What does this fold into?
Amino acid sequence: MRSYESGLALEFELGSSRAQPAPAAASQAPAVGFTPPCFKRLVREHSRYVIGLLRRLGVAPGDVDDVAQDVFLAIHAQLARFEGRSSLKTWVCGICRNKAGDYRRKNERRRGLLHASPCEPDPPGDNPHDELLRKEGAKRLQQALARLPDEQFEAFVLHELEELPMRDVAAAMGCPLDTAYTRHRVAREKVRAFFKRGARTDEER
It folds into this structure.
């Protein structure tokens, strides 16, 4: 089984596209009778998700534990005010996005994503040639993402790699749904153009 990033990279290599669902309005009403979750349980159930998401959002592996700690400190401080207006995962995702953005700006460097790796390594494939192609495709995807502006980068990662519905992407990014769709569409077009340029370069060699 290959990673989602590898499969997506091969999709861009082949030039196919994913059909986009029609925009839907995100709910803003708090859940009736909502009770904030237990912090200890939240940490236990979401630690792995937080670390994986931070890596995808550009935090280098050597720094991810420190940034994850900042995420959970923010969650602890804000948990009593969480009203269930979005899913818990979307809310945690928004905090991860903010902390990863702070990290990228603080370090004054382009994406730590170029040095990151998936939380789970791909198992070895039956065909060494196919495995090489998958790894090369994933590497190109990382390079393409490193060239995107922050907001487009985040929209792409949250929807394509984290597979969040676009209404949840908008909630996590704190922007209107139409804006989230636009950021994702532009990012996807830029990534596809990057793969096309790479394909032409390979053909000319």
